[in-house]
User: Fold Amidase domain-containing protein from Urochloa decumbens.
Amino acid sequence: MGLFSSPAKVYKPAADVDLGPGSDEFYISPNVKAPRVAGLLVKIFVWILEMPIVGQIVLYILKKDNLINKLVSDADIPEPPLFTATHSWEDTPEQNVRLTKPDLSAAERVQEAVSCLPARLEATLAADAPSQQQGLKRWTIRDFVDAYSSGETTPVQVATRFLAAVKESSAPGLNMAFFISCDPEDVTRQAEESTLRYQRGAPLSALDGVLVAVKDEIDCAPYPTTGGTRWLAAARRCVADAACVAQLRACGAVLAGKANMHELGAGTSGINPHHGSARNPYNASKIAGGSSSGSAAVVCAGLCPVALGVDGGGSVRMPAALCGVVGFKPTAGRLSNAGVLPLNWTVGMPGILAGTVEDALIAYSAIVDQSQPSYLRPELNLPQLKSTLSMNNIKLAKYAKWFNDSAEDIRSCCDKALKTLQAHYGWQTVDVTVPEIEEMRLAHYVTIGSECTTSLAKYLDKLKRSEIGWDARVALSVYGSFSSRAYLNSQRIRNRQMYFHKEIFKTADVIVSPMTGVTAYTLQDDAFDTGELDYINGAALVRYSIAGNFLGLPAITVMVGHDKGGLPIGLQFIGRPWSEATLLHIAFAMQEACAKGHKKPAVFYDLLKKE
Assistant:
């Protein structure tokens, strides 16, 4: 066991664990004690970690202090490993859905999704706010298309306003750092082509002319894919659109540029020393969250109704919650990973950030992977959002100890939102126990870290360390220290968690939780050049994210209110495999129930304004 060892955990068989509300399972809140480190202290810490012997000792102590050795590496676990989070198709009945034909094109699927929307989409999410100054008017995909079709405006005019807004937001006064790259000529060319199609009365789909940002972890021609670094684009050339981007392009979407991100996706803040740190439009002194920071921020600021992100550990849903937008991660395998940087094979996949649930549905319908033979492909149900109000007998599983392990403002706001759902729709909350939450977080951390260093090994072996940001160097040092035993035991924990969640889904339709344990925290000047090591806030931000990735489950977050400082709070719903339609129904119901209190971000652009 070694010099710094502590008794390892002995797990009882998963089938013997009580999942009921009265379970005696002990809830472990993240045992994170390390103080925040930034600036010169980060550099000193990196130098220590990269010393051959001393660094190994420090890493061992850190893993012991954070319980990785006790709960994962050295643990006695009866289950065999489960190496992937894939799910076989199960025909689970869903209410009020539309089954799509298997041979539809992306544009045809978008039309199917539009037909599922309510007859009138409400553009003003806070119509009853005390003043229009406070109220949030968020234009939807359908608002843009209606404006284009009526001739009220054109994609070129909107693209021109967009490019002016990007320039303004990037200037020293704001320095929002939304994008790593945005090519005005390419954006204008796409908008001109879209405008011509509308003039001819032949738009490609309801996404034609709609601006969509793409996280710089996803290939999108003509841009390089940097992964938030300053070296990866040269080492790995982008030669074609990723599958999800190609489908959006086929629908006529205007690809707006490559959105900023945390370097290599290895952090939760979105602080990037190479390309600037994406700021939160609700308060530019706060983080946007990571790693899909730019994608969340551009949607929040009104620059795009939809953006693509990649979610390996809450990296779509977490920044969505911090920026007050919808974050949607479908079931593992529902979207293609082709053309996405392979940073985490078994836990990561593309995801959608949108201003509304309706827009998330439209984007989802466009990018679902239909490349497999029809007999291998799961059925695609789209939710009839116009009939959400008639949904009945929905059961929401809640683990109180986990749900309440968040800041007071988040806890009270999410609890109030849940009671609102119950009051409006008569849906039932079912008390359950989700065991071994912290064990799952640590197992996921070992998994995503091991997969990241392995996928990058061919580049890192040839790379000067000075080309990597300081905080990313710390992450890579920790990731590279995990043993094969730690990785295998993590997959055994994945097997246990898959069993627990399947059992819970026998009694409930979704699991509900806050999306984050804290709201967006303050960007500090000493972190801009080096990044920061803030494991306390990091653990709080990922606390509710892990099951969606580690177990490949669909999950969605929607804003339900604000903290005392006016920062957004998100509520999350986690669903059964392939139950995206039910999740979108529930998220839409939650959105409609809470919409009146939404506030306008401090940095916000109205791209449909009339001249």
